[in-house]
């Protein structure tokens, strides 16, 4: 899973989240430091309003959270979503000799390498570099 630091960096860089079933997120409020939630039509569903997107918590009677404004949620994109964001720039995902992950991306005329302990974080670094070269997504 992508690190919170990389997820925040993607948000700061302008990555736009359109919640869909299966997306993981954290609540950016005190008391939720280690909780990860998943969008699901059965339990957590995005609702579009004129004022913005609200994540509705359906059937959560054990605690008092009925909904959450999207700006209070931090999307934790999955490895496949990050790879898709790279698009044609993605070249390869490899394991290094020290058991880290290496993403190779064609950014500009060069192939650039991004390494991390988690594949999602290597992809996130590549996406951040790609975003720095283009307009926000």
């Amino acid at each position: 899973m992508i690190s919170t630091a990389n997820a925040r960096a993607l948000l700061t860089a302008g990555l736009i989240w359109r919640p869909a079933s299966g997306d993981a997120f954290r609540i950016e409020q005190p008391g939720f430091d280690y909780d990860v939630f998943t969008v699901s039509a059965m339990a957590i569903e995005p609702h579009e309003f004129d004022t913005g997107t609200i994540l509705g918590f359906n059937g959560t009677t054990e605690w008092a959270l009925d909904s959450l404004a999207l700006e209070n949620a931090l999307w934790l994109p999955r490895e496949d979503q990050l790879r898709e964001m790279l698009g044609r720039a993605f070249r390869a995902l490899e394991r290094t000799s020290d058991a880290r992950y290496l993403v190779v991306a064609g950014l500009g005329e060069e192939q650039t390498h991004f390494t991390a302990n988690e594949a999602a974080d290597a992809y996130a670094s590549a996406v951040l570099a790609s975003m720095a070269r283009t307009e926000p997504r």
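The chain has two domains: 4-76, 79-133. The longest strand covers residues 101-107.
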